[in-house]
Backbone:
């Protein structure tokens, strides 16, 4: 067993720590009321250790053991908290997809280990073109599956919402980033002369994930499921940055490639912080009695001011609005815009298409954040949220406030970390001195000024306000009496965009008219947006696999004579193959 820490491992260990510490505070308050609290506590701690083990592993066996534990421990936690049929089906799908796709990780690691090139620079430089292409393709498929990149993402929107909220925060915020660590380690740092098609594949997967993930998030009404689809979107943004980095490096634009790597890693840290914050806030809302249905919340910023205020910070980062969450997306956009200028031919066109996809995803993401903020945090309490009478426990409030502070710091002062992140890319050590790189927080004077503006000014305004509050005023609704029937819903707010996208989303609608004696008593409209990839591709594939398994089970008769006959048949076939010269 060999372990160690270098700058890349340290960066991702920092991401793990930033989310794991507040997740432990949240768990201390929330796990006590869950099923099997001791088991969940042990599995949660083991899950964090497994992720740390992947990051510090320096030999193939340690890496693969920790990688498998990172998959199995959250699956056990889901089964422990949801032992019903829905939980078992979710875990089956999660393990089936991640292990079939994750076989690529085993292939990549074992090929590198077989050539003595697992982390050995000299052996890595001696890899042939065929071995490099095989490792690159296997690593891309394997790590992309666990990261949740489309079209290998179908497990993520099911598994993450089913886990306890603090584990959902770790799965969406950190586990997907550990997979990104694998992509950076193998494709950016280790492999020499990575084929350009790897960058193109990351651009394609990233663009589809970013745009598809946020569009499906727009159609969700369960808050945790919405956040899970948002994870698909944000992992796609990270993949766009890494794809741009590989293509720019292939064209010799080393500084731009380093900037793209820094953008991807900055967004990885930013997403880990705000997604961990939002999953914990969703869990706090659910524990307080507000439920998880966005349209039945409302008013939580007033009834739960600390947790709701922290969630609002996370939603601003979700939307990518300045100064929170904007820098990483802007740097990614700028790197993608540079691709057509490098004379990259068809890859330049791919960069332009990816740029358009990212811009569209950012716009839709702002709408999704607006929906959650308006329907869940603002307005009057609706449905289950009307029963909420107080904020969450002190431990939960400390956890979400800490993450809100991390989100603000990363968004407003990116210059503090971008040069160090860029140095993780080959040839990126001199990026800090590159002309035109003028990021907030890059110098001590500017850092102090921005910190004062972000911290001192709000505190001064709060002190000036004192205990004064604004007088309540009636809501103007064009002269109508206001009531619940006039409240905006998520479906109403997004209706225009969903109608525009109906050709791609293929929504299903059903109208039920309940009448008797010629009198209509009730009209019920039901609609759903099917997840086409899962329902048209994955579900039939799983059904075929299960049918094959049931057929193969007949071979397990339990009869010793039958097993001897099977062995005799195998021997006869092998002898025939030797006789005809197929085997020697």
Residues:
């Amino acid at each position: 067993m060999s372990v160690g820490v270098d700058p890349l491992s340290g960066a991702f260990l920092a991401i793990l720590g930033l989310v794991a510490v507040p997740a432990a505070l949240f768990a201390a308050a929330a796990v006590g009321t869950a099923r099997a609290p001791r088991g969940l506590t042990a599995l949660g701690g083991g899950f964090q250790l497994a992720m740390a083990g992947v990051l510090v592993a320096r030999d193939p066996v340690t890496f693969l053991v920790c990688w498998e534990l990172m998959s199995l421990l959250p699956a056990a936690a889901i089964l422990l908290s949801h032992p019903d049929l829905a939980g078992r089906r979710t875990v089956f799908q999660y393990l089936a997809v991640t292990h079939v796709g994750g076989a690529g990780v085993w292939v990549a690691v074992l090929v590198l280990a077989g050539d003595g090139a697992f982390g050995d620079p000299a052996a890595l430089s001696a890899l042939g073109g065929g071995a490099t292409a095989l490792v690159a393709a296997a690593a891309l498929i394997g790590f992309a599956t666990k990261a949740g990149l489309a079209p290998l993402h179908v497990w993520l929107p099911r598994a993450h919402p089913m886990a306890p909220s603090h584990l959902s925060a770790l799965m969406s915020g950190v586990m997907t980033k550990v997979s990104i660590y694998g992509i950076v380690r193998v494709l950016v740092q280790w492999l020499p002369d990575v084929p350009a098609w790897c960058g193109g594949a990351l651009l394609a997967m990233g663009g589809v994930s970013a745009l598809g993930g946020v569009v499906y998030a727009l159609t969700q009404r369960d808050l945790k499921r919405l956040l899970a689809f948002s994870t698909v979107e944000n992992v796609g943004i990270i993949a766009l940055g890494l794809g741009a980095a590989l293509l720019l490096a292939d064209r010799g634009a080393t500084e731009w490639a380093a900037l793209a790597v820094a953008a991807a890693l900055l967004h990885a840290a930013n997403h880990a912080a705000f997604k961990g914050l939002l999953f914990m806030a969703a869990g706090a809302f659910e524990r307080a009695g507000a439920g998880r249905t966005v349209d039945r919340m409302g008013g939580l910023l007033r009834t739960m001011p600390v947790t709701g205020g922290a969630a609002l910070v996370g939603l601003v980062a979700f939307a990518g609005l300045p100064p929170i969450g904007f820098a990483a997306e802007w740097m990614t956009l700028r790197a993608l815009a540079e691709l057509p200028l490098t004379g990259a031919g068809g890859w330049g066109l791919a960069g332009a298409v990816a740029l358009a996809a990212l811009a569209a995803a950012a716009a839709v993401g702002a709408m999704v954040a607006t929906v959650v903020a308006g329907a869940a945090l603002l307005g009057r309490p609706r449905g289950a949220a009307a029963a909420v009478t107080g904020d969450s426990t002190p431990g939960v409030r400390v956890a979400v406030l800490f993450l809100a502070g991390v989100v603000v710091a990363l968004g407003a002062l990116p210059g503090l970390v971008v040069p160090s992140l860029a140095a993780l890319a080959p040839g990126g050590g001199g990026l800090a001195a590159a002309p035109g790189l003028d990021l907030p927080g890059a110098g001590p004077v500017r850092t102090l000024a921005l910190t004062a503006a972000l911290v001192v000014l709000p505190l001064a305004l709060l002190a000036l306000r004192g205990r004064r509050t604004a007088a309540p005023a009636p809501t103007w609704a064009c002269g109508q009496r206001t009531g619940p029937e006039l409240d905006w819903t998520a479906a109403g707010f997004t209706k225009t965009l969903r109608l525009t996208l109906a050709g791609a989303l293929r929504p299903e609608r059903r109208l039920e008219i309940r009448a008797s004696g010629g009198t209509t008593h009730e009209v019920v409209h039901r609609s759903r947006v099917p997840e086409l990839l899962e329902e048209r591709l994955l579900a039939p594939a799983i059904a075929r696999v299960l049918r094959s398994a049931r057929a193969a089970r007949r071979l397990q008769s339990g009869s010793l004579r039958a097993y001897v006959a099977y062995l005799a048949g195998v021997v006869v076939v092998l002898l025939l193959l030797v006789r005809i010269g197929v085997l020697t």
Remarks:
- Residues 60 and 109 are 6 Å apart (CA to CA).
- Strands lie at 508-516, 519-528.
